[in-house]
Each structure stands twice: as C-alpha cells, then as structure tokens.
Amino acid sequence: MKIAIMVNTGPYTHQASDTAYLFASAALRKGHEIYRVFFYHDGVNNGTRLTVPPQDDRHVVNRWSELADQHGVDLVVCVAAAQRRGIMDADEAKRHGNNADNLASGFRISGLGQLVEAAVQADRLVSFGD
Amino acid sequence: MYEEDGAPGGIVKKIAYVNRRAPHGTIYALEGLEVVLIGAAFDQDVSMIFVDDGVYDLKRGQDTGVSGIKNFSPAYRALEMYDVEKLYAESESLQKRGLVVEDLIVPVEVLSSAEVAELLAGQDIVLNF
Lengths: 130, 129
Prior knowledge:
The complex is a heterodimer of chains A (130) and B (129).
Chain A: E1 2-7, H1 16-29, E2 33-39, H2 60-71, E3 75-78, H3 79-85, H4 90-95, E4 107-110, H5 113-121, E5 124-128
Parallel strand pairs in A: 1-2, 1-5, 2-3, 3-4
Chain B: E1 14-19, H1 28-39, E2 45-50, E3 86-90, H2 91-96, E4 109-111, H3 113-121, E5 125-128
Parallel strand pairs in B: 1-2, 1-5, 2-3, 3-4
C-alpha cells in the first residue's frame, strides 16, 4: 500500500512524532511504500538539526534523517509553517537575510500542495498528533 | 512563494476538512484554512465541516485588535472564489454556543451530528484542524 503521513506536533513534548516514525518504519518493514511524510503545524520542529537530546534518549530528528537516508523517504516541511517557527534551509535563510539555517539532513522545504498531492496520490493519509 | 504541483493525474477524491477549534487560542483554524486555499488548486471534491468550537471560526464581527493576532476570518469569504462551496456547520455545535446561521460570515448548510457522521463516512480523505 502507498501511504502518506502527516505529522502535526513537534518532537518530545508529544509522542505523536515518535509514533509516526515507528508507524513509518513498521510499514516499510512490511513492504509498504511511504509516499511522503509531511510536517505541518509544530510538526515542522522535527526538521531542525540543532536538537541535542540527552544521550540516553532517542534522537527524534536524526531518526527521521536516517529514515530518509536508508529508505529514500521524502520528508517535506511546510514552508509557511516553517517560516513562522524559524525552520529554514540555506536558500530560505538567504532569501530572508538570516545568517543561519537549521534544516536537518534528508528534509526538504516545500509548499502545502505537497500535502494535498500526497493525500490524493496515496492509498491512505495517516495523520499523527492533534 | 514556491511553485505548487498541478492537479495530479486527473484523480478526484472526496476531501473533508474538519474544523474543530476556535479561530484563536491555537493556530489550527488559520493553518487549516491555508491548506484549503492552497489545496483548491488540485480541483478535488472538497467539503469543509465546522464542528465543536470550530463553528466560531465563521462568527461575524471578530475583532482581534487587542490580542495582536491577525483576524483572518474575512478569508473565509474568499472560499467561493476558490470553488470551495460545500460548507457545513453542525447544528448541535451551533445550538450549544447560542449561534444561528445569521451569525456566520459565509452561508453554510446546517447538518445534524448524525448527518455529519454520514458525510465523513463517505470521504476518501479527512483532515482535522
């Protein structure tokens, strides 16, 4: 089955992002396709490479990056939601005159059309958090 | 702004956007509306359903001046131009909050809770905000 995932909450405060990751991993193990993971609302905070959780805890952001690296999963952060919350890649930082960028490896920034397109193309859209 | 993908491959799905929260207090109503407006480019079969505190999203005469938060409620009037014309409000939610359709900024069809459930059951995609 072709599955699209929507993540609506940031890491650590809520477990929804962990659950989304575990669901995606399990689906891949079972041979399903993850068409895209779309990060919206505070979910865009899953895409910052600057998180440093305690070493004895899971690293939520790196786990997503590894999923993209190992399985080619398309991780898309909503541009409008990201701009509000200070998540940007190098191009965005340049465009807005910011002297830093923080998008984690394996993520890309794009528009809300990517959410609707994924929902239309996939067999199921599964959303996590609020 | 970023280029959005065009309508993919002629597929038309039934998409329901369920608005459950008040216009302010959280960003969900605003960011939900943004999905609907951008998503309109995909020419899908779209319904917007307002339930619980979501019926307040459409309340006329909102004034957010003191809070410093943008009053985006006039944007609901633009939905018609985006061909988003199926707007529904749940009657129980309106009644509990002392609202009638005349209080709302755009025309809606009022559905009972059971009718909303039936509408949702017939959708391909349901997005909650």
